[in-house]
Amino acid sequence: MDKPKLVLVGNGMAGARALEELLKIAPDLYEITVFGAEPHPNYNRIMLSPVLTGEQTVDDIVLHDVGWYAAHGIRLLLNRTVTRIDRARRLVHADDGTVAHYDRLLLATGSTPFILPVPGHGLDGVIGFRDIQDVQRMIAAAAQGGHAVVIGGGLLGLEAASGLAARGMRVSVAHLGATLLDRQLDDAAANLLRATLEARGLRFLMARQTDAILDDGHGRVRAVRFQDGAEIPADLVVMAVGIRPNVALARSCGLHVDRGIVVSDTLQTYDPCIYAVGECVSHRGVAYGLVAPLYEQARVAANHLARVGVGRYPGSVLSTKLKITGIDVFSAGDFIGGADTETITLTDPLAGIYKKLVLKADRLVGACLYGDTADGAWYLRLIREGRDVAALRDRLMCGEDAANDAGAASDAGHEPGHAHAARQAA
C-alpha cells in the first residue's frame, strides 16, 4: 500500500525540527516532500550573527545537510517557492511548475523582515537581516568600508551593528525608543548595554523616526533623514525593525489568518489536513519569533502527524539572549513587574553586573540579567514551573547552587565585591 504523502512548505528551523521529531516517532509513516525557498538546506538562523562577525561560516551553521534528507528518503526541493495550494485536490504548486500531492500538509513559511515604507526603501544598499543572502550582502558591503546605519535597536539590530563594526564599518544605530532592547530589558540593564556597546565604537541615535532614505542620484543609498530633519550619511542601511508572519500563501488558499495562520493547541489549522508551525503561526492570539516556542510547536505537531495525538501546545514563556561576543544578557517572563509584584535587585556597577528578579505571590514571574547570566536557565525553569519560592527567596539572587545549600547562602552577603541587593515593591 502506498504511504500517505506529507508535504512540508518551508525548510527553516521550525519545519525541519517537526520532521526530525516525526522521524523519531514514526520514521516510515509518510512519503515526505520538502519545499525550501532558499538554495540552502536547513540552517540555524539564530547563528547568522556569528557568521556576520566572521566567528563561524555558513557551513558551520547547517543543521541538516542534503545527505540527511537523502538518508531519510525525503524529497528535497530547494530554491523553489510554493505559490498556490489547491485544498480541494490537495495539491501544492511551486514557481517552477512542480506539483505535489499531499494527504497532510505542514506549513512553516516563517516570516519576512518588515521594511519601513519610507521613500527610498527600495534603493540599492538597503537590506534586511533575515537570511544567508542578507549576511552575504552585508559582508560584501563591509569589505568596501564606509558608514552603516542600522534602523532598529532590538536584538537583530544590535547583532547586525556589532557584526558590521567587527568587520570595520563605522556604525550608527537609529532607534525609535528611548532605550535599547526596550522589549527585552528594563532601563537599568539597557543603559549598561548601551555603555558597553558605545565603548566598542557604536553610535546610538535614540528616539529617532526615519523619514526617508536618500538617493545618491544613481539608485544607491547615500544618507538617512529623520523626521526632525537631521541627516546621517550611509553607505549601507540595515532595516531591523521587526518581522511579519509570512501568511500570503495561507491566506490565498482560504485558511483563517489573523496576524498569523490561526492554529489550535494541536497546531492544526481550520483545515484538518493542514498543520502549521513557526513564525507564520498565530496561537491563542500570539505569534512567536523566538526559537524555543517554535521547537515546542514542532514537537506537538509531529506528535499529531504521527497519529499519536496526545500532545498539546499551551503557549510559551519567552526568554531572550543577545548573541554578541562578550556581552551576556538574559530576560524572561514579566521582568518589568507591576503594582502586585515585588522585585529583588542586585547591582555591581564596577563589575558591570545587574540582576533583577520579579516575584508575585511567592512565585518567580520574571528575570532580567546583565553581565552574569549563568543562572538564567534556572530562573526560566522556576518561572515556567510556577514553583512557590518562599523558602528560597533570600537565596534566589545567589543562584541555583547557593539556593540549594543553606550554608553557602548564609555566606552570600559577605562575598567580595561591591554588589548591593535591595528588595522593594515595584
TrEMBL record:
Query: Per the similarity annotation, which family is this?
Result: Belongs to the FAD-dependent oxidoreductase family.
- Domain FAD/NAD(P)-binding positions: 5-301
Q: What is this protein called?
A: Assimilatory nitrite reductase large subunit
Task: Provide this UniProt record's keywords sorted from A to Z.
Answer: FAD, Flavoprotein
- Note down the stretches annotated as region Disordered: 407-426
Which organism does this record belong to?
Achromobacter aloeverae
Which cofactors does this gene product need? Answer: FAD
**So which domain of life are we looking at?**
Bacteria
